[in-house]
Sequence to fold (308 residues):
Amino acid sequence: MDKENTLTIFDLQRFALHDGPGIRTTVFLKGCPLDCLWCHNPESKKKTSQLGYLEKNCIGCRRCEKVCPRKVYEITGEGEQKKHNVYLERCIQCGKCVEACPNHALKIYGWNVTVEEIMHTVCKDIDFYQKSGGGLTISGGEPMLQFQGLLKLVKKAKECGMHVCLDTCGYADMDKYKEIVPYIDLFLFDYKVTGEKEHEKYTGVSNKKILENLDMLCKNNHAVILRCPIIPGINDHEEHYKKIAELSRKYPQIVEVNLMTYHDMAKGKAAQIGTTYALADLKTIEKEEKQKIYKLVESYGCKKLKES
Fold:
């Protein structure tokens, strides 16, 4: 695969309204160096493509079993005793089963696409970007993990006069951020957990590099929206809320703070790809509790809050 011209993506959403200003097209890249317990896109973690199976859509027609060359599917029994076994580890992502399935019970997460192909789709809506102040957003996973292709994509977008957002967890070499900043208008920068040990406990990595990159971007006058997931039992506490407010005051370049309160939609996605969701018993934060959190963070001096 040509790393400079090809990216592995798992979704591309046109007319997106929550990934930066205006109407946008958001491209989601595969692969992430973090392993957050609450990850709302568990299908994004692996760099490579993978099969997803949505059991509730399966009608037991056995078409997948018939076309699969690797015996991924095994359907046993009849009637109420019928059981559909899916051995995801055998899959080579050939896609034959997805084409054969009549009820959308199967999906391949992740496919290779060239920069030119992405730009062909993105440019279809350039009039909407210009009228709304929108543009292109690259998200993930973590886009910086596919740096060479990402760099070429953002250069092409800027050549077309587009506003470009980069949604990042901040965990990449600083030199790479310095190389890409001339082509990024706005960073959507994650701030997940306060405290180095706690951050490593819940995400798998230290937050030292992340905070250093945030500091570098802000001190070099690059615009940032700070995105803060709020997860019950993990970071929904006074110390974390105060730190969010402190960062918002420290850096004028943080133009907005988004509190992204937990929802449990990832549970179903995790089941589709055959992984265990660590926070299976956690419930979505409802509107009333969400409003309390907003008021609390605001009371600590954060004046840049915007509901996400």
